[in-house]
Amino acid sequence: QLQNNLNNKTHPLKINEAFPLSVAAIDDKTLVIKWLIQEDYYLYKDKMFFVIDGAKIANINFPEAKLKHDEFFGQVRVYEKPVEILVTLSEIQNDALTLNIGYQGCWIGGVCYPPQNDLIRISLSGAETIQSQSGESANTEELKARELFQQGGLALFFGALLAGLALSWTPCVYPMIPILSGIIIGQKQTPSTIKALLMSLTFVLSMSLAYGFIGATAGYFGAGINLQAIMQTPWILVVFSLIFIFLAFSMFGFYELQLPRVIQDKLDSWSQKQKGGQLVSVGIMGSLSALVVSPCVSAPLAGTLVYISTTGDAVLGGAALLALGLGMGFPLLLIGTGGSSFLPKAGNWMN
User: Fold this and answer.
1) What is the structure's pLDDT at 261?
2) Residue 183 and residue 201: Cα distance in Å, rounded?
3) CA atoms within 13 A of residue 168's CA, in its CB half-sphere
4) Strand order across the 116-123 sheet
5) What is the mean pLDDT of residues 170-192?
6) What is the pLDDT of residues 27-53, one digit of tens each?
7) Nearest residue to 211 via CA among 324, 331, 298, 327
8) How far is residue 129's CA from residue 119's CA, in Å, rounded to a whole number?
C-alpha cells in the first residue's frame, strides 16, 4: 500500500499543501493551532516554536507525538496525522496579536522541507484570522525550477534549453569566450568555418555532458540519500561555516591559498601539451569549463538539482541539465564559429 501511494505521488507537494496551517481563538486567552497533515507527510515536534507579539505564552499543550527513528536526526517525535495545539496566553496587551509559527516537516518519498516560518495576525474577540503570510524559505529560482521540471517531457527539455539561454548572459560565461577562441585559433593557420563549427560544437557538447552527468547523478542518488536533510544537519552546517571562515582569512591576506608547487607544475605541463584545434583537447576544456560557469548560476542550478534529487530519475536529471548546458553554450557556438566577426575590432578607441 505504501509503495502504491509513492508510485501515485512521484512529486512532493508544496509546503502549504502538505501542511495546511490555521489558527483560531477559542476564547479571550486561548489559541488553537491546527496542521492538517497530508498522508505520507510528517512534522517534527521539536522543530515547532511559537512567538507572540502583544502577549506572553503561559502554556503550550502538545498532543502526544509518535516516536520515530529518523535517518538523519535520530530518535525524534513526529506528528503524522492532523494535529491541534492549544496555546494559553497571559499579559495580553491588545485584541490583535501577531503570531510567528516555526515548523519543519518531511515527505516519506525522500524530501525534507527547509524550516518554515509563518507570520499570522489573529483577533481574540473575533476569533478569526486577520492576516496570514507564509514565510516559505524556498527562493524564487527554486520554485520556478520545480514548476518547470514537474511538466516533464519535451516541455522540460525546451524549458531547460530556454533557461540555459537566459543564464548565458551571466558574467561568468564571458571568460569562456577567450578560452574557446584561444583553443580554436591556437594553430598555425586560421581554421575553416566548418572546422571552427566542429570544434565549437565539441566544446559546447562536452560542457553540456558535464552538466548532464551532474543531473543524472543527482537524480539517481538524490532521493536515496535525502540530500536536503543531510545539508540541514548541525555538523554539516558547522563544518561548512568553519570552511568559509578559514577561506575568509585568505581574502584578508593572512595567508596565500594555492595548490602545492608539484601539482601546479604537473597541471601546467599538461596544459601546455593541449594544442588548439585538437578535438580531444577541446572536449576536455569544454568539460572543465563547467567549473567556470557554475558559481554564477548557482541559484537556479541549486534549485534545479534540489528538485531532481527528489525524483530518483537519472534520465530526467541528465536530460534536463544537458539541455541547460546546451542553452548556455549556444552563444559560444555562434562566437566560436563566426570568429572575429562577432567581436569588436581593436583600434585607437581602445586607448
Assistant:
1) 76
2) 13
3) 23
4) 49-53, 96-103, 116-123, 128-134
5) 64
6) 888 899 999 999 999 999 999 989 888
7) 324
8) 11
pLDDT digits (tens, 9 = 90+) for 320-338: 888 888 888 888 787 777 6
DSSP symbol at 226: T
Examine the pLDDT at 8 and tell me if it is beyond 50.
no
Q: Report CA-CA distances (Å) from 70 to 40, 102, 173, 320.
A: 14, 20, 42, 31
Contacts of 117 (CB under 8 A, 6+ apart): 100, 101, 102, 135, 137
pLDDT at 11 over 90: no
Q: Which cell numbers in the block locate residue 57?
A: 505564552
Asked if residues 113 and 227 have their Cβ atoms less than 8 Å apart, the reply is no
H or E element at residue 61: strand 56-61
How many separate helices (H) and strands (E) can be counted in the chain? 12, 13
Q: Torsion over CA of 168, 169, 171 and 177, rounded to 10 degrees?
A: 60
The average confidence (pLDDT) of the chain is 75
Q: What SS3 state is found at 109?
A: coil
* DSSP type of residue 280: H
Residue carrying the nine cell digits 568553519: 242
**Any residues with CB less than 8 A from the CB of 314 and at least 6 apart, and which?**
216, 217, 219, 220
C-alpha distances in Å from residue 189, one per residue of 109, 186, 277: 57, 8, 10
DSSP 3-state assignment of 120? strand
HSE of 192 in the Cβ direction (CA atoms, 13 Å)? 3
Q: Which residue has the higher pLDDT, 145 or 236?
A: 236
Q: Bridge-partner residues for 173, per DSSP?
A: none
- Helix, strand and coil in the chain, % to nearest 5: 55, 20, 25
The position carrying cell 548546458 is 325
Residues paired with residue 97 on neighbouring β-strands, in sequence order: 122
Contact 23, 32 (CB under 8 A): yes
Distance CA 195, CA 279 (A): 10
pTM over 0.70: no
Which residue in 226, 223, 229, 227 sits closest to 44, CA to CA? 229
